[in-house]
Design brief:
With 219 residues, the chain is α+β, with helices and mostly antiparallel strands. Helix content is 38%, strand content 30%. An 8-stranded antiparallel β-sheet has the order 3-1-2-4-8-7-6-5, with helices on both faces. Helix 1 (8-28) packs antiparallel against helix 2.
Length: 219
């Protein structure tokens, strides 16, 4: 928890609070001074928690894949993070079927109203060779899906090559029943595949901004 983190919003709140409290401070003395310190500590701790969440998830992914991804914070909450495993070539009939971890999948949900029950979660993990390492599986639709690979994640068939923030990416805009944007970003040692599914007014620009934030922080 980073209690020393702050931004301009916190500073503004503090200045307004101090200004409006000047007349009361004269009467309240030490009591009000302590109250102000408590309020500021609460604000700083609260803000620190909100900004460190995705960093904690990245560190947990690192324990499985050996890479630390950058995960943008959006209006859509991260519902769950899962690790996908490859098949176990030495698996016997009664032995484990999971092999080595091959990627991490991060799902940002539109909402989190309906959580999947424990039995269904176990069945989903087993049938898909996945393990949920953060959050919960929800029935609610995905707004954004990010798949993280160690090394090169391959190519998107029929994708265009465009530049985002000076970095070449594979880009595909899909128009079917609903619109979707797929972006693959390759770096040295780590790669991302973004599936942007949220129904935005300009889904292409929103998806590019999401990718740009990853690129600017992963370089």
């Amino acid at each position: 928890m980073d209690i020393f983190w702050y931004d301009e919003h916190v500073v503004k709140i503090f200045k307004i609070f101090i200004k409006k409290s000047e007349s009361i401070f004269i009467k309240g003395g030490i009591f009000l001074k302590k109250y102000i310190l408590i309020v500021m500590l609460f604000l700083l701790v609260g803000c620190g928690q909100s900004t460190s969440g995705s960093g904690d998830i990245s560190e947990e992914i690192n324990e499985y894949l050996g890479v630390t991804p950058y995960l943008p914070e959006t209006d859509y909450p991260i519902g769950h993070v899962s690790i996908e495993y490859g098949p176990n070539p030495k698996a016997e009939d009664d032995g484990p079927t999971k092999g080595e971890p091959i990627n991490a999948q991060v799902e940002y949900n539109i909402s989190q109203d309906e959580k999947v029950d424990e039995k269904s979660l176990e069945e989903w993990e087993e049938s898909n060779r996945q393990e949920v390492i953060y959050g919960d599986l929800y029935m609610d639709g995905a707004a954004i899906m990010v798949t993280i690979f160690k090394g090169d994640g391959g190519e998107i068939k029929d994708a265009d090559l465009i530049e985002i923030d000076g970095h070449e990416v594979q880009y595909q805009f899909i128009e079917r029943n609903t619109e979707a944007v797929i972006i693959r970003i390759n770096f040295d040692g780590i790669s991302y595949m973004i599936q942007y599914l949220a129904e935005e007014n300009d889904i292409e620009e929103e998806a590019k901004e999401f990718a740009k934030e990853i690129i600017s922080n992963q370089k």
